[in-house]
Amino acid sequence: MNVLNALINRRRFLQVTGATAAVAAGGVGLQGFSPAAEGQVGRSTSGNTVVTKSICHQCPARCGINVYTTNGRVHAIYGDPGNPIANGKLCPKGHLGTYLLYDPDRFKGPMKRTNPRKGRDEDPGFVPISWDEALDTVAERLNRLRESGESHRFAHFYGRGWGSSDAGLYGDFGKLYGTPNSAIGHASICAEGSKRAKQATDGNNSYNAYDYRNTNYILNFGASFLEAFRPYNYLMQVWGHMRSKSPQTRITTIDVRMNPTMAASDRYLMIKPGTDGAMALAIAHVILTEGLWDKEFVGDFRDGRNQFRTGQSIRPARFEERWTHGIADWWNEELKDRTPEWAEQITTIPARHIVTVAREFATTRPAMAIMERGPTAHFNGTYNGMAIHALNALVGTMFAEGGMFYQMGVPYGSLPVDADDYMDDYAREMQGKYPRIDMAGTEKWPMAGTMMQETAKHHLAGDPYRLDTAMFFLTNPIWSAPDPHLWEEALKDVFIIETSPYPGETAVYADLILPEHTYLERLQDSPTYPFEGWPMTALRVPAVDPVYDTKHFGDMLIEIGKRIDGPMGDYYRELGDVENILRHRAAGFVDNPGDNGVNDFESWKEKGVWYKKPYHWRYWRGSFWEWDGEGYNVEMSEADVGEKLLRTPTGKFEFKSGFLERHAGYIAQEMGIPENRVGIIQWVEPVHTGGGDLHFVTPKTPLHAEGRSANIPQAQAYMQPIVGGRGTCYLEIHPDTARQRGIADGDRVRISAEVRGERKSILAVARYMPAHRPDTLVLPMEYGHWAQGRWATAEGRDIKPGHSGDITENLSDPISGLASYYTAKVTLEKA
Amino acid sequence: MAKWGMVIDLDKCTGCQACTTACSMENNTLPGESWQDVLFYHEGEYPSAQMKWLPRPCMQCEKPSCVYVCPTRATYKDEEAGGIVFVDWNKCIGCKYCMIACPYGVRFYADEQPLVEPDIRDVYPGENGQMWSPPYQNPEQDWRRGIGIQPKGVVSKCTFCHHKVSKAPDGVADLDEDDPDLVEYVPACVRTCPPKARFFGDLDNPESNVNRLIGDKHGVRLLDHTGNRPQVYYLGAGAGIPAFSPRKS
């Protein structure tokens, strides 16, 4: 007992100062909450704690957040109950946003490089400069390029930029300055495949809005609904609803690996990577042969008797189509032979499961087939996506209750100035004179909207030209693009302006650091990602004054614009700043008040979001109806449907795609499909890169904040699941596959693949996961940073795996341009 | 006084760990000091393997074995606070008896080597006797109940967010985050749970929603045979911790 007493005494002695301090600190706490007034949730009566409306910035979802700040320090983030996406909730990333604000590795202010040599291991030798010097330096370069007629050699690159206050400024900047490269977006290394699949079938180059609340069946192809599909937070909320409503929504998930979505679904089917299209075609085959299609949407045989029989053609004239186009060609040219037995050979999914899923999907209404990168990040991605999306037409999902739609825009006020009035002769001359550096939209990539991953290659080859100056905003292709080594070469002789507040990989190669605010310091709008269709736009209000000497990216762009010679400078002086832009945007709400009463800039700041329900269109029992202010009362003509909803060449949902047929020559040449067949939704073999024997998939986990969570120690600690990693991620491997290679659980392994003809390798620690396919390795795409801060690059007791991009070939789907992130085949050996 | 209880519906839980991060930020725990953890398991083999998960807060047991073994009475069950089990950091000597006695593994001694390196305690060195002092520290502190950031050498644990719950109006049956008048009093893990798999309310009130859910959906308590009688109930399939099986290499 004496020992214990001594310990207690020691403890009490040690605590004297601490305990006193604790009592003192307790006096300024979050005390005395009174029942909250409407819209003022959580505001403290003590006056110390302020709740600010903002929007999370760790994924595309745009959840409204309530930021709790006491005495100038942010200490908590919760979902905003008044925001229709967040509904008071957050995903695991959302709470960690405070770390991003107070990241000790943040850049403290603008800097310039002093070491002319560039490389991974070269210290840039950054020295602090003033904002004026930084912006003047940029403007001088830009003015000089313009004087020499080479303004096209300046490019903007961006990733997670949103709204009219940052990414929305690029178009006018490029137009006034005279470059086609304002800006090169990141969509082609993101999820462009599903957009193009939808454009090719229903005419909308967009992600979908979904009515999950009212659906009774989800057939999920590789959309990691409970990990990284967006809006993740809302998807989990609606999951809770779907799984407890009556009738419970039934969910079948098809993916290439075990994951939380698979585990939580009613049925999971583990498919061979890149073959989802074959499964979807076989499901369509069953739906047609068994007469289960939606006759009010698709139409029917004129005599009412089903003539879809396996292996037999139908006579086109005998089928009267309603809202679709090309079903007879689709059946005769492709579908009649796409039996479940055929698909089993390709997908490894037993035919009997395919039949069961097809019957269930087609007889449970409303039903929807969803997808994302899983099926589309392959050479055959657009065709895979089209086959999946066609299922939505077969069961009448498009624009139906419990189905899917397209997002409406926000009725913003216009800007105070029109860029067209400020173009000089030079700017007009430059319009259309040069292609984009990535060649998107040219004969090289005629159907791609953006091809960021091609940039490094084009620059190095000088074809179409070499870049002179590049400005990066929230994108880091030198780390995240496939084959990033090429970017390291390319960025050596380009003047690089990096705007991230964090010391990422691009910064290592940067000549100028212009650090922007983190999201909790920004004033910024954010029109919603496709959500439930009705228009919505949220506002980010600064929770605290900038912690360091940083600048809003939008204001940076405006300040550079002001420094450009000629009328362009006048335009930006008129535009003023980001707040002025947002005030003009909010003027559009005066005549269009939101459902929550937001009708001007001040009320937008207070509530954090403007939105207006309902969605304006609905398909119901064979007809399309438009909202008239009270109900879906106006029946739409075919022309109206074609113009507003099914925006294809035929105005119908196309099983035979006019969009693809317009590019028949290109598709025939790039994909080896006969020109007369390119429009048909069909099976196309995937092209696997890497030259190995094991499929390699690199998913995003729930704590993956687009590369930025790598420097959040809490996120690192919880980087599970799948096989319970703690502080690291593992290469997940089926035990049989590992043992065949002499690899024990926990062994260090080398994963190798051919990239540009060279063998590239990364290291990882193997973890046995018997739930995965024996032919497929799984390594989450999060690690392998060689910059981004002390935790991202630390060599601790935990061995972090290398970066999956290092061994990923830069091969893209010729149609969508989406990089084939999940198509590599690798070899594996004990390291 | 209410007897606070938590109900976790495993049929709705999506294993996202928002509870874990919300807790870690609300209570300023260290990486790996997961007062509210989610454990992942898998059984079987491709193509019919199962994967499952179990969110695990402190069970705030009616008969807490940790309390019985504490030599300094630092850890105690406070019936006046709704039956929450606290650690008085002024009394704790860090002997870890309670950690051994706890059948659920929900007590933490954070003085060990850090889970994630570099050690965040070196980045934000402790002030005023705290183990570490991050710039985003929650102003709430009460060392007699183990709230705030602990000094070195003590055990920490989930407090059911007593600093929030204790301010709730008297007599309330349930703390439902969807009620704008109550949202600020709801424990962080319950408040943020996106699929609404968590519920918090008064187990002594037969009219409470938590009792209704336990009744309707056959709530169970983990490791009930130990006699600890948790105040946390689980609903749905898979409400059990699989037996430990060593890894086969």
CATH superfamily heading of one domain in chain A: Dimethylsulfoxide Reductase, domain 2
- Range of strand content of chain B: 15-25%
Strand order of the largest sheet of chain A: 5-4-18-17-16-6
Number of helices of chain B: 7
Briefly note the CATH topology name of chain B: Alpha-Beta Plaits
Which structural category fits the helices and strands of chain A? alpha/beta
Could you tell me how far the N terminus lies from the C terminus of chain B, measured between alpha carbons in angstroms?
A: 53 Å
Helicity of chain B, in percent? 10-25%
Widest sheet: strand ordering of chain B? 8-1-9
- Strand tally of chain A, please? 31
Radius of gyration of chain A: 28 Å
Give me the CATH architecture of one domain in chain A, please.
3-Layer(aba) Sandwich
Number of helices, counting only DSSP H or I runs of 4 residues or more of chain A: 30
Shape of chain B: globular
Keywords:
heterodimer; A: 831 residues; alpha/beta; Phosphorylase Kinase, domain 1; Dimethylsulfoxide Reductase, domain 2; Barwin-like endoglucanases; 30% helix; disordered N terminus; B: 249 residues; Alpha-Beta Plaits; three-stranded mixed β-sheet; two-stranded antiparallel sheet; 9 strands
Can you lay out the helices and strands and say which pair or pack?
The complex is a heterodimer of chains A (831) and B (249).
Chain A: H1 2-26, E1 49-55, E2 64-70, E3 73-79, H2 92-95, H3 97-101, E4 111-112, E5 127-128, H4 131-147, E6 154-158, H5 170-177, H6 192-202, E7 209-210, E8 217-221, H7 232-242, E9 250-255, H8 260-264, E10 267-270, H9 276-289, H10 295-298, E11 299-301, E12 319-321, E13 324-325, H11 327-333, H12 340-347, H13 351-363, E14 367-371, H14 373-376, H15 381-394, E15 404-405, H16 425-430, H17 455-461, E16 469-473, H18 477-480, H19 485-490, E17 495-498, H20 505-508, E18 512-513, E19 524-527, E20 536-540, H21 553-562, H22 567-575, H23 578-586, H24 601-607, E21 609-611, E22 617-620, E23 623-627, E24 632-635, H25 638-644, E25 653-654, H26 658-661, H27 664-671, E26 694-697, H28 713-717, E27 731-733, H29 735-740, E28 748-755, E29 758-768, E30 776-778, H30 790-793, E31 825-830
Helix pairs in contact in A: 4-21, 6-15, 9-12, 9-13, 9-15, 12-13, 21-22
Chain B: E1 4-9, H1 18-26, E2 37-43, E3 50-56, H2 65-69, E4 75-78, E5 84-87, H3 97-101, E6 107-109, H4 120-123, E7 155-157, H5 162-165, H6 188-192, E8 198-202, H7 209-216, E9 232-235
Parallel strand pairs in B: 1-9
Antiparallel strand pairs in B: 1-8, 2-3, 4-5, 6-7
